[in-house]
């Protein structure tokens, strides 16, 4: 079995050998069949020779892996970072992604801060404080969902968006309103799992490293040897090398969860087993280092994923931090006829939604979930019905009303150019992967925004979503032919293909389309 060492690693390793372990120099140097700094890689034989260097002491790495895992789990939702999120800081963050709509941003920032304030209160008062839910009123595509979604992301809150029209009065065919809470818990479970994975990444990597190195150099290897192997492991030189590992059984017992503190019993037990003191079924496996790393990391995170901690934390996060965005609430409001979609009473759906928004307990497969402190953000255009047509009780539960403005050409231009990772940057990044340098003149961006606004006026007003269709239209040619264009450019000695979108190009593509409204209905 052979494995490769990159130049850098080889140099690193040689320096290490000569500077730190002169007594082992001959043995370790003999492992290299080739260590010329100019060669692309160095090769040395492994398994049998590795046996020669197995020696003295093992590093106390297990303990540090456990410590970092425990701390990763205990600060899963960045409590410290949340403390810093004042309303001003929240609005500043939202400004990075959403153009304008200052009132709506302020309203959600206050709602979020109120949540934090509530969590600082002593138990009894805390339970009395109910969230002030929000009603966003504004045309389609003006940023209502985006504000709520970004807000949730900012604080890692479980978030779901639902369409009010999907829910029907109890007893009718359709989704049951309780599904809202069930979906929220599912979102919360996914979020907790994802956060755990991210948080445990360092700890599981550390654990994998410790186990693999132990498998390679033995439990009693000299510290200097272990350090040398760690250097090689970290620069990937051992990836293709085979290691024999005593993997823990995957059916580890679930972790316990008591008083909000995770008991890492089973985790520690499995570590002890690796130290040789625990009694455990033998499960020796030969595998490549890179496979072993993936297997250990997966197994370590699965141990936590299957624990009670995930469900308990998911329910807590849904109850305390959950945000439910109910879109098209105006579609279940019809003051005059009291009918929705010709079949089910809109008032009935509103009545069904009420207990969820007011606060009730819903049974889910993960356990009971109380909705008292879930933040509900309802939204609608309210072109026909008015907010005052809603059931009085529902109106009372949505005390914060904010109006969002429709988007004109100027806002469209800002949406195109201002947010982090805006549409233009995205397109440039996509085409750059092919070797295309995409450039827009400022006049082209203005013309494009104007065309989007005109299309919204003549066709349906779909807000900023129109920018996507217009931009796709303008870039359709270069998107299709990018590989060939780059090839041609390279043949003529250029590294990359430059594609300029100027005002003229926008006019050439958009003007004929905007003149033929029948056609633009399909392509824009
Ligand atoms: N003010 C804005 N700033 C930045 N992007 C925006 C803005 N308004 C809309 N967008 C973009 O347009 C798209 C649609 O926006 P969003 O989903 O927020 O619409 P909405 O107001 O919730 O409408 P609907 O009720 O139809 O869902 C999203 O991709 C969003 O990023």
Question: Please, could you describe this protein's structure?
Answer:
Residues 130-408 form the AAA+ ATPase domain. It comes from Chlamydomonas eustigma. GO terms for molecular function: ATP binding; ATP hydrolysis activity; peptidase activity. The protein is an alpha/beta fold and 524 residues long. Among the domains are: 83-188 and 325-333 and 345-403, P-loop containing nucleotide triphosphate hydrolases (Rossmann fold, 3-Layer(aba) Sandwich), CATH 3.40.50.300; 409-517, Helicase, Ruva Protein, domain 3. 54% of the residues lie in helices and 14% in strands. It is built from 22 helices and 17 strands. It has helices spanning 7-20, 25-29, 47-52, 61-74, 79-83, 87-95, 102-120, 123-128, 144-154, 178-217, 223-234, 265-275, 289-305, 308-321, 346-358, 392-397, 409-417, 423-432, 442-458, 465-491, 503-515, 517-523, and strands at residues 2-6, 41-45, 134-137, 159-163, 242-246, 256-258, 261-263, 284-288, 323-327, 339-340, 344-345, 361-364, 367-370, 375-380, 400-403, 436-440, 497-501. Strands 4-9-14-3-15 form a 5-stranded parallel beta sheet, sandwiched between helices. A two-stranded antiparallel sheet has the order 1-2. Helix 1 (7-20) runs antiparallel to helix 11 (223-234) and helix 17 (409-417) packs across helix 19 (442-458). The longest helix is centred in the middle third of the chain and has 40 residues, at 178-217. It starts with a strand and ends with a helix. The site of adenosine-5'-triphosphate (ATP) has 18 residues, from helix 9.
